[in-house]
Specification:
Blueprint: H1 2-20, H2 26-51, H3 58-79, H4 99-110, H5 116-140, H6 149-159, H7 161-174, H8 184-197, H9 200-210, H10 220-245, H11 252-261, H12 279-307
Helix pairs in contact: 1-4, 1-9, 2-5, 2-7, 2-8, 2-9, 3-5, 3-10, 4-5, 4-9, 5-6, 5-11, 10-11, 10-12
Length: 308
């Protein structure tokens, strides 16, 4: 178990140390993020999807994950007053998952570089984030630059290499691209994509480490948000397993990917789409995501030990 998590822990700690010593600057970190989101992660996703044998059952998984994210959003909107959290961003922090900048790196480290099953689980939630979550986050702060949150979100989604990699990967897999696996042109493209995708995990871990905070004094609301999210997402994961994965006889690998996904923190893109938010709300969202990242890392390490 420790051997599996050692590379991830080392890379995260290294990122933290390099950031604290000033070796990693904000510009460098932003550059790493752009490389991952626009180049290495799309290559990883395309490779992952073309390597799986697509099953019609996966459409049910996509829908189940999408609906689960929606249920989490509605549920936490209703119970916000119960925990006396006034921030309108509380429900947004309790749904969606940071797969791109965290999930794939962790899953690949634990499962010998393969992310195919995790990608199947990711489709529904990444569609939810761009179609539902981001527009709502933007509209919470009002209209920005004369555009609605929905139009801005769709425009960003259309330009996202990650979204296109998922769409193209799903279509290629559904149409049976794997049958050409022995062709020379296929192997050449696959080799190229694999080569490009190799740095993904290391770069993501450096970015995660560089953004970690270890001081969370006077953060009652942030702690409540993280704990509420953890309990609800775990319950939802067990529900999806019982209602979808088990009846469809989908294997253990998808179950492992499901639980790792639902232990991840909320989407890191939330702060980027907050319009006209108060300083208090910005601090609340930033601190919650940082705290949630630490809790998620610990929870996932424990879960992987149990699952394996």
């Amino acid at each position: 178990m420790f051997i599996l998590i050692l590379p991830v822990l080392f890379s995260i700690v290294l990122g933290y140390i390099l950031r604290q010593t000033g070796f990693l600057t904000d510009a460098m970190i932003d550059g790493f993020k752009k490389i991952v989101i626009n180049v290495t992660l799309p290559a990883l996703l395309l490779t992952a999807f073309t390597q799986i044998k697509f099953q019609q059952k996966y459409w049910a998984v996509f829908l189940a994950i999408f609906l689960a994210c929606g249920i989490l959003l509605l549920l936490t909107t209703g119970i916000a007053k119960l925990f006396k959290i006034r921030s309108p961003y509380f429900p947004f922090l309790c749904t969606g998952f940071e797969a791109g900048m965290l999930g794939y790196a962790l899953y690949a480290s634990f499962y010998n570089g393969s992310v195919a099953e995790f990608a199947v689980i990711d489709v529904g939630q990444v569609l939810f984030v761009f179609i539902v979550l981001v527009p709502l986050v933007m509209m919470t702060g009002g209209i920005h630059e004369g555009k609605t949150g929905v139009s801005d979100s769709l425009r960003i989604a259309v330009k996202s290499p990650v979204v296109w990699a998922i769409i193209i990967g799903v279509l290629l897999s559904a149409f049976g691209i794997a049958k050409f696996a022995k062709r020379e042109w296929y192997q050449a493209i696959e080799s190229l994509l694999t080569y490009v995708s190799v740095p993904t995990t290391f770069l993501i871990c450096l970015v995660i480490g560089s953004g970690l905070k270890f001081s969370f004094a006077n953060m009652k609301n942030e702690l409540i948000t993280v704990l509420v999210r953890l309990v609800l997402t775990l319950l939802m994961a067990f529900l999806i397993r019982a209602a979808v994965l088990v009846p469809l006889k989908l294997g253990k690998d998808l179950t492992d990917a499901l639980f790792i996904m639902f232990l991840l923190p909320g989407p890191f893109v939330i702060p980027a789409f907050m319009q006209n938010a108060s300083g208090e709300d910005k601090t609340y969202v930033s601190n919650t995501l940082s705290m949630n990242t630490l809790v998620s890392l610990a929870a996932i390490f424990i879960a992987v030990g149990i699952l394996n």
